[in-house]
Design brief:
Layout (H helix, E strand, L loop, with lengths): L1 H14 L4 H17 L4 H18 L4 H13 L3 H14 L5 H12 L3 H14 L4 H13 L3 H14 L4 H13 L3 H14 L3 H27 L9 H10 L3 H13 L13
């Protein structure tokens, strides 16, 4: 849905070229697009920077614009430049729920969990039924290795939005960390189905039934390790090698991710 979001923000800009918040939203969308689609990352981040610069030129007091710039800095590993922009976004509009939620995500990546919890609690005060904010709180619990608390929060998230894909992603990870592999695979299958890949979900189910978790890790490595394919994911390959106990190959693939400046490495400090 990223392209749809880009189109709608562009329509808003066409109607009112002085609307700073629309440029901020456009920058956010390009940043997230670049994070989730590595093949488009460089171009998407360049567009995000341009849109956030335009937003700030139009209105230096736009919380959306400062948040957009913060996210671009963060995903580009410019950590010291990112934090003042997050703080500015939170200060400029205390009722802008996205700002403390996004700042919380940054703080998680820095390993500052108590501060992250304060920010996400603020986001939940503003909107208790935000699926994003509820899922964000679960990440903090999971990174602190409190998987039961994380799972309970994720179940609440799915009561709010039964089709919230990222919640199934986090559930799969939490169940796996607890050794509850059947439930982990079930959550992973649900995630793939929601993301429009029912045939991949069926293949995952078959691999797990015939080869167990080891087979799933090898299957995932085979899927994620081809640079010519859109699903290429060196971080995922490294994680699966680590789970197989092959530390040398895990480090090899982390090095590939580092050389490519992979945004996903931002969570390396805190991710269990």
């Amino acid at each position: 849905h990223f392209q749809k979001a880009v189109n709608y923000y562009q329509q808003a800009i066409d109607k009112d070229p002085s609307y700073a918040a629309a440029y901020g939203g456009l920058a956010d969308t390009y940043s997230i697009l670049g994070y989730f689609q590595p093949s488009l990352r460089e171009a998407a981040f360049a567009k995000a920077r341009a849109a956030s610069a335009q937003a700030l030129a139009l209105d230096d007091r736009s919380a959306e614009a400062h948040l957009a710039l913060a996210i671009v800095h963060w995903l580009s590993w410019e950590f010291t430049a990112a934090e003042p922009e997050y703080r500015r976004a939170v200060e400029l509009n205390p009722n802008f729920q996205n700002a403390p939620e996004a700042y919380s995500n940054y703080l998680v990546s820095m390993g500052r969990f108590s501060e992250a919890l304060q920010q996400v609690d603020r986001a939940l005060e503003l909107d208790p039924l935000s699926a994003d904010a509820n899922a964000q709180e679960s990440i903090i619990f999971a990174y602190q290795r409190d998987y039961d608390k994380a799972i309970a929060r994720l179940q609440k998230t799915l009561e709010i939005d039964p089709n919230f894909g990222l919640a199934y992603n986090y559930l799969a990870e939490c169940y796996e960390a607890k050794g509850m592999y059947d439930k982990s695979m079930g959550a992973e299958e649900r995630l793939l189905t929601l993301f429009g890949q029912p045939e991949v979900a069926a293949e995952l189910k078959r691999v797990y039934a015939t080869s167990g978790t080891k087979g799933v890790h090898l299957w995932s490595i085979a899927r994620d390790s081809d640079p010519a394919k859109p699903g290429y994911n060196p971080i995922g390959v490294a994680e699966n090698y680590a789970k197989l106990g092959d530390k040398d190959k895990a480090f090899d693939w982390l090095e590939k991710a580092y050389q490519q400046h992979a945004s996903e490495l931002i969570f390396l400090k805190g991710d269990p």
